[in-house]
From TrEMBL:
Residues 304-344 form the UBA domain. Residues 135-185 form the ZZ-type domain. GO terms for cellular component: autophagosome; cytoplasmic vesicle. This is Next to BRCA1 gene 1 protein. Keywords: Cytoplasmic vesicle, Metal-binding, Zinc, Zinc-finger. SMART domains: PB1, ZnF_ZZ. Signal peptide: none annotated.
Length: 345
């Protein structure tokens, strides 16, 4: 199993592509990412204890423990080195005549620093533990990791179907998912919080509202849209009609991640008669939940007169008498009359 290494420093989390094999490798990677020179490292073992890593063998022990417990990733917490040695080195630069004069300064100062370091780190760890909950008796339906640790997502349609965070972001499940949370000091009961999909229309192009179009045929309307929510859209969302007379061809809606943008291109079928026609559509999940802004279009459909149809065919190079006869033969269907002439050419 490939062990993922995550480096945590000052609330920032970075995923390491290459696993550091030594403390020096780890320090070099950390310095490259965060810039500070002197770091010390810790991790939380499977019993919840905070273990300091000070040697290559201790770093290897951390890896082996995670692998033996079938843990997919391990977090290494980097801190600025506030150790006794570092402080003593700083103090040693002070010019004093008697080392005994330093004792009243060293001990309280070092104790205060150690206390600050411990309390500050434990506060950060408490925040991390909110997201590293172990979900007893719940496994991932895709990768089969058991139990799920960290964020857990439950399907709102399938019975007893749960995903770990990695499989959730793979986006292979077609139904809406909710993020589960735990209440209480020792886990308590599981409560699901639904994260609804969201969408905002950024701009439009193609045929515009109020534009005059010819009867019959097809027109193109485009919308640029944004996933402005906190959840990825489910697979197989559709553009569902909610009002109006205009019809559109089916459209594949991509399962956008939060912050992603895409363009929706709709082929709109125009009525055969004159008048003002409109349509309104909304995004809809496979569970028939509609979300986001409404897609709206209104057009003025105009039917050509007999004289205008004859003139249009004449402009295309057909004779006036032949155009008139062809239109009469096809009950003044312009497209059919033109097609008959093209076939006869």
């Amino acid at each position: 199993m490939s062990l993922k290494i995550k480096l945590v420093y000052n609330k920032e989390i970075r995923k390491l592509v290459k696993r550091p094999e030594t403390i020096e490798d780890l320090k070099a990677m950390t310095q490259k990412l965060f810039g500070y020179k002197d770091f010390c490292f810790k991790y939380e073992d499977t019993e919840g204890d905070i273990i300091t890593i000070s040697s290559d063998s201790e770093l290897e022990d951390a890896y082996e423990e995670a692998i033996s417990e079938d843990i997919k990733s391990i977090k290494l917490y980097a801190e600025e080195d506030k150790s006794v040695n570092a402080i003593a080195d700083a103090i040693s630069g002070i010019n004093v005549k008697n080392d005994q004069d330093m004792l009243p300064i060293k001990r309280p100062f070092i104790n205060n620093i150690n206390s600050y370091e411990r309390n500050d780190y434990e506060e950060e760890l408490r925040k991390e533990r909110k997201y590293e909950t172990a979900w007893d008796n719940i496994g991932c339906a895709y990768c089969s990791v058991y139990p799920i640790t960290g964020n857990c997502y439950q399907c709102t349609i399938c019975y007893n179907f749960n995903l770990c965070e990695d499989c959730y972001f793979d986006g292979n499940h077609m139904h809406p998912l909710v993020k589960r949370i735990k209440h209480g000091l020792f886990g308590g009961r599981n409560v699901s919080i639904y994260i609804p999909p969201s969408m905002r229309i950024l701009n439009t192009s193609g045929v515009q509202n109020g534009e005059t179009v010819e009867h019959g045929g097809e027109i193109i309307k485009k919308w640029t849209i944004l996933n402005n929510g906190e959840a990825q859209w489910p697979h197989n969302c559709t553009l569902a009609k909610v009002n109006g007379q205009l019809e559109i061809d089916p459209i594949n809606i991509p399962k956008l991640m939060p912050g992603d943008i895409t363009e929706i291109v709709a082929v709109v079928r125009v009525q055969e008669r004159s008048g003002i026609f409109h349509g309104e559509w909304r995004l809809q999940t496979p569970a028939f939940q509609m979300f986001g802004d409404a897609f709206k279009l209104e057009v003025v459909v105009r039917t050509l007169s007999h004289e205008e149809k004859v003139a249009k065919m004449v402009d295309m190079g057909f004779g006036e008498d032949a155009s008139f006869a062809s239109l009469v033969a096809h009950n003044w269907d312009l497209d059919a009359a033109i097609a008959s002439h093209l076939i006869g050419l």
